[in-house]
Amino acid sequence: MVINTNTSAQSSAALLADSSAKLAKSLARLSSGSKIISPDDDAAGMSVSTRFDAQINRISATNNNVGNATSYTQTQDGFLQKVGKALDRMSELAVLSQDVTKTDSDRGLYDKEFQQLGSYVTDIATKDFNGVSLFAATDKSVTIDSDAGKWSMSKIDLGASSYTTATASNVSTSSGAMTALTAVKAAIVTLTSDRATAGSTIARLNYTSDQLKVQKTNLAAANSRIKDVDVAEESTNYARENILVQAGTAMLAQANSSPQSALRLLG
Q1: Rounded to whole angstroms, how far apart are CA atoms 257 and 154?
Q2: What is the SS3 assignment for 240?
């Protein structure tokens, strides 16, 4: 029996320290919900999980951009509906002005409304969405993936010649009304094409948004398998380490009291 070197206590202390460290880590996992508390837990897993987190955040940002582009196009189509009604009425006025029972004075009255409607269409062409022109003569590039890949959103230009020719016409005379009718009919044809463009753009953006949501969900699931703690399993680990810490503490106390037996021999 020796006094200066208590190997039993040293061994018990080492085992207790190990159990205490594992208990602390298990507690941290349960409280944080993550099984990767520090890089040494799973270096490769942490690296992959960090990249997944960044990609998931980029997908969220991309979906936000797509949503804004959808709102932009829906706003375009809302204005185009009003333009369609104005053009319909303008074509009606152009026909009314060709009535043989009407005088040029009567046609002048029709022309006042015709000009106001033309001015209304011209004004809509200047509208914008958050400072961005709704009806510019250029396509818009929309981000559609986490790497900022672009998709070209087709332009809708209310400054196109078919529209400006119609709005510049008049129905103050019978011949002018005939010319105006031809111009307005051409503008209506262009309008139907533009509304079809808006509709197809909205459909494409909706599909892109759905695809981004699915991708985000799948990446989140993959990321969860890497970093999220299994509460049932970790609770079992916590209970085991807690018991070992308590047992280790008791045994260390016993080991520290063993050298006192030497006093009996000395007595």
Answers
A1: 85
A2: helix
